[in-house]
Amino acid sequence: MTIRHRLLISHFVMFAAPVVMLLITIFTAVGGLFVFIQSGNHAYIESSDQYNRAADILYNAVFHGKRDEAEMDDVSDYSWIIEVLAPEQNFVLLQKEGELLYEYGNAHLLTLFPGLPDPSSFHEMEHFEKGAYVRIENNKYCTIRKRVVGDTPYYLYFISHQAPHGTDDRLEHVTRGAFLFLGLALLAFIIATSIFLADFMIRRILPPLEELQTGAEKVEQGDLSVRLSHEEKDELAPLFKSFNMMTSALEASLRQRAQEEENRKELIASMSHDIRTPLTAIKAYTEGLIDGVADTEEKRAHYLAVILRKADELSVMVDQLLLLSKIDVGEKAVPLEEVALDRFIQDVVDDNRDAFLQRGLVIEYRSDGAAAIQGSPLLLERILMNLFTNSAKYKDRDAGRLTLTLEKRDGRVTLTAADDGPGVPEDALPHLFEAFYRTDKARSRTERGSGLGLAITARAMDLMHGTAEAENGSPRGLVIRLTWPEIRK
Question: Which residues in 59-151 belong to E strands, given as ranges?
């Protein structure tokens, strides 16, 4: 049950409580009166005010709600109320057109009021079917009421002789007892209702909040593995779900930060190693020139050529590191734009085909039509150049071949680059896109590459909302598969 439903039920209970209290009051009063009558007790008239109230009660008990003669003639509906009055002190008479329907009490009291008028002549100004006669003399009271039900007139006589004070002690005792019981019952009802409503609401709100507080304290202490359970389908369920999602995200973020820190340490170590190798060569050949080891023009030219090549390697490595840093910053450093990928690849292939052909690599390109993506021309060109360079560097034959195929399918654009080189060991495939990873475990051949090319490719694809995958070709070679979301117009 949801908290909203519980609140609605609580408001309904608060609305119904006064009604229930009223019913308790009525039933208590009626029950007390019934017990009073069954015990053989009677009510006495001790003042004119009491007589007037009793006369009104009798009139309403006899006539109220009666719509036909059959209801009026059934005296059992109201006789029990009349019989509450002390019979020796009171006299009640009900007539129907001169016919006696009901009589109760001391008929001798009629002699106290000689010369009573004919009740058939009674009427009120606005209601001719009604009329009343009232007479009070020396603690003696007489009331005659007329009421026409259907087409038949009925006459109600009520005569009373005032009793001495104190004769209704029993009634007062019963009344006090009834009021005491009523007060205690209402107090018990209010307490029970309050306890029920408090338990009804609080037990479904406080325990989940306490569980959330406990979970938050565990998170504050660094325990991100905490997960909270809430079986109820109420307004707190999304809160528990959000809490679990938050702790899961924080835990994943913490693991990612730990992995990034490990990668950073490995990156620094790899950079130190890879930069040291060309620097060592530059330093050695420079010292050879200074010390005069290169004593011929031919040696000096060779030394200078080596120094220039190693400096170029350093320059390429620094450029790649700078590009990798830009990619890590995101779109602010490398903004994306709409690129016609098929034409872009064709232009890059045409610009570099002859240069790589001189290095023994034939580049072929096939496309099944125009394709547009959200990308960066700078990153796309670097990705293609990395693919060309890797295929040229790692070919194990005099002539190698790299085939590029662009395809569109299901809202995705895929570029497949397949060469006919030696491929890589299967255990190396999952690591190809890691920075500074080489299949050469000794890491001594830096002239074959810095180990950043495919790492740049993977991170650039991620920035462009794409993916990069690698697998060995059949029967040989390496296949790099790049996929982007297509922009459809």
Answer: 90-96, 99-105, 130-137, 140-149
